[in-house]
Specification:
The structure is a single chain. The chain is mostly helical and about 140 residues long. It is built from 5 helices and no strands. Helix 2 (about 65-75) runs antiparallel to helix 3 (about 95-110) and helix 2 packs across helix 4. It is elongated, with a radius of gyration of 32 Å.
Length: about 140
């Protein structure tokens, strides 16, 4: 103990004491804010939502599985990326624009409808495609 009755490691200058109090309060505020943010940003596990039924028709796909698979096939055949993970992929470049134009041409062609029907048959699904009429000679 020092002559003032305080432990030796305690500061006695009022300015230092105030700075320590302010620093302590500021640290508590930061820790509280970080903990509140961490609680808000953590997502609840998906199994908590297993019982939720979604009956909104606007959320249902308007495409059949065969249409999606046919679309993916021609997307890849056109040379377009199957993953957008490549940060350097240039969607404004000439190579992309050419590939996209080729994809759109294939998507609009009657052969796309034929491909949809072929995939549907392979999967054992009903053969129907609303996008275009397929002449019976091409659907075989």
């Amino acid at each position: 103990m020092n002559p003032d009755g305080l432990p030796l490691n305690q500061p006695t200058d009022p300015k230092i004491i105030m700075k320590l109090k302010h620093a302590t309060i500021a640290s508590l505020i930061v820790v509280s804010a970080m903990s509140a943010y961490a609680q808000e940003s953590s997502s609840p596990p998906m199994e908590n939502f297993a019982h939720v039924q979604i009956d909104d028709d606007s959320l249902r796909s308007t495409l059949t599985r065969a249409e999606v698979l046919a679309d993916l096939h021609i997307w890849q055949k056109a040379g377009l990326p199957t993953s957008w993970g490549e940060a350097s992929y240039n969607t404004f470049g000439l190579e992309y624009r050419r590939a996209r134009a080729h994809y759109e041409a294939m998507r609009a062609s009657p052969q796309f409808a034929v491909l949809v029907q072929q995939i549907a048959r392979q999967r054992g699904e009903a053969v129907a495609y609303a996008g275009q009429h397929v002449p019976s000679s091409q659907a075989q």
